[in-house]
Amino acid sequence: MTILGSEGEERVLMGNEAIARGVLEADARIITGYPGTPSSEVIMTLMSLASRLGIYVEWAVNERVAFEIAFGAALAGVRAMATMKAPGLNVATDPIFSSAYSGVNGGLVVLVADDPGPHTTQTEQDSRWYGPLIKLPIIEPSSPQEAKDFTVMAFELSEKYSLPFILRTTTRVNHSSANVVLGPIRKRHYSIKYVREPERFIRASMEWNRRRHKWLNEVLAKVEEDLDHDERLFSIEGRGEKLIVTAGVCYLHVKQVLENNFRDWGSSFTLVKLGLIYPFPKRPLKSLLSRKKFREVIVVEELDPYIEKEIKILLGDLSISLPVIGKLNGFFPLEGEYSPEVIERVLLGKGKSFEETVQAPRRPPPMCPGCPHRATYLALLQALRLERYRKEDVPIVGDIGCYALSVQPPLEAIWNEHSMGASISIAMGLKAAGIEKPVIATIGDSTLYHSGITSLIEAAHKNVDMLVVVLDNETVAMTGHQETPAYAMTLTGRRTTPIPIEGLIEGLKIKWVKVVDPYNFEEAVRVFREALKQKGLRVVISRHKCVILAKEFRGEVQVDYSLCTNCLTCIRATGCPAFAYSDNRVVIQEDLCNGCGLCTYFCPHKALRVVS
Amino acid sequence: MTNLLIASVGGQGGLTLSRVIASAALKEGKRVIVGETLGMSQRGGSVHVYIRLGERAYSPLFSPGEADIVLGLEPVETLRALKYIGKHTLVVLNTRPIHTITTLLGLEAYSSIEEVIGRIKNRSKKVLAVNSYEECVKLNFPKGVNMHVLGVAVGITGVLRPETIKAAIRELLKYPQKNLEIFERGLALGKEISRSIMG
Q1: Domain coverage including residue B138
Q2: What is the CATH number of the domain that holds B184?
Q3: What contacts A20, CB < 8 A, 6 or more positions away?
Q4: CB contacts < 8 Å between A and B, how many?
Q5: Taking CB atoms and an 8 Å cutoff, what residues of chain A touch B63?
Q6: Which end of chain A is more exposed for a tag (fewer CB within 10 A), N or C?
Q7: A334/A323 Cα distance (integer angstroms)
Q8: What is the per-residue pLDDT across A269-294, written as a single tens digit (0 to 9) for each?
Q9: What is the pLDDT of residues A407-427, one digit of tens each?
Q10: What's the structural domain count of chain B?
Q11: Structure pTM?
């Protein structure tokens, strides 16, 4: 839905669209990040408006670079934002730590989207701990409306206190949609300048660093003093003797459970919602706890017991002995996403409300029909077979991207998928440990640009005996088709200098580099076989555009039922979701088949063919 | 407050359906909150969307048994949403199965449509199995299953006004004419069923 509109208008916006609207209302001018579910839609929403509004909205090569660009802009006095998912924050933290010591001039907001569940992330990282670790303030919205409002507030506060602010969200806020009332777009007059202040901006003097650390601690104390009771960030409802403390989307779950189950919940419960996560709002909670006699404290938060531990410290300080119902004593789970159901179990003492186990077949996400990654892995596995390697002897290290779906049957190709760009260096480690059989790293184009390239430099420098396969589908597919540095134009229409992978690695002087099209299947198998016979570092760039972006296959695949014996080899070899059974025979679903013809290589009876 | 649940497979237009519903609700001045559960893939994974309409709507997720209307675009996905179906829930179910990779490979059996309907009927008698896909193919628009199922549910329940839904379809969808036509078909079917039950 469009995020343009006047003050007071109401829209149904997704949390990430609401954050994008907040960026416009705050008149931030530099917005950058690296794609990562569930954070990507903020930049995707703004990209369509960037050239019209004259703001800089671009994907960066990785999160660290994105943060540094936004930081630089904020040093020049411009409001800027960097967006990322939780693991992306880990990539960016080195410069973020130092930015707390120097501070900023223009407002700087880092959006980090955590993923309880997890739905699409390698860990259930709780980024709230970064508050006390990096020493930067964190605020957390509970709804799309707050996502917008807190974004505007974060820019204002960041500027007021000259400190970057972290806007922490969770999937359920990023990806929920709800009514949002638009606020005013306050155009700002920017005077762009950057003044030389060595003590602030240079971290080479230890004396300066110590002084800046003191400055930071003082500012954080001031932030706490000013904001801990700010009613936008601290709300109290009800007057009952059971105190519930919560934050983020859990507030909405709790509210729903209370509204659904109690006629007048306010007489039994006092509900506190926190918006300020760090510095922790100790004072108003202390005041509440000492002013009123509560029977128990219930802390409702996803992932780690961050709030719960703070509450326990407060109760200790006040010498108040109260039962704290939370995670530490096992009432609430430490893992997974919360829902009203999880909260009902504790608040209402309901047992397991749903005993019946649902026996529905699993639906693991498949590679799309016509996905070039399927062709690459099948060619690679075929080459291993023909070179007489056993599949279980040759580790194939994967990386982050759609190609990780090759873990699923029937391919069951990759052995390892760890974190962005890790495949090449992990494969190096396997080789260094003494694995004698070939070791193969497989990495996507965007992941190579993001951070895999530094590992490739290392592998080239040490001339490691391994095969690196770059699965180049010419896009960042999994997160919704963002551009890579190979593009001549970004999605906002900015003309750029394309940096093709061949050019990028040319300077590494790798002796054996081949480029193949995996849909030239027999040739691809031949190249992989040759690669397996070589020694030293070999690189195969397996390039074919993502099928969702380019449906260039001609025709469709048809089954010749006079030849088909229903042996199902086509399905067992490829696992292509365009196949189905109907009336006890293999059929190809026309609306799903892209006509790539990969299956035709595997039919032992020549019953499959591409017809145009 | 009304709770709707969309159970679908990526590529069937489950998310688009939720956007149409949310936009129609906004036009009627209703509060709406939508939560979605997506797998990792662009296409082919489970996509379940939770929609709450009304003043006391807060959480983007439901508790078990809380769905008032289930829009089941695919049988096994509707089965997966079983716990949200209560005694009062209306389930509109498109009967055309989409295999999972595990059922295609024979690692698991795809539940038969009779089994799916039977399991749902154990929880709610208000189950309506419709071959929406067939209807859409007849109109030469196989992608219209989402709008057909919506039409049927709206025809039976009147949860939203057809006019606001049609306005939302015109604003949001790529092929408004085809989608409107299919929505109308579903609507007519829903009204007919509703009359026959009442009569």
Answers
A1: 2-198
A2: 3.40.920.10
A3: A3, A41, A42, A43, A45, A46
A4: 176
A5: 257, 260, 339-341, 344, 353
A6: C
A7: 18
A8: 999 999 999 999 999 999 999 998 99
A9: 999 999 999 999 999 999 999
A10: 1
A11: 0.96
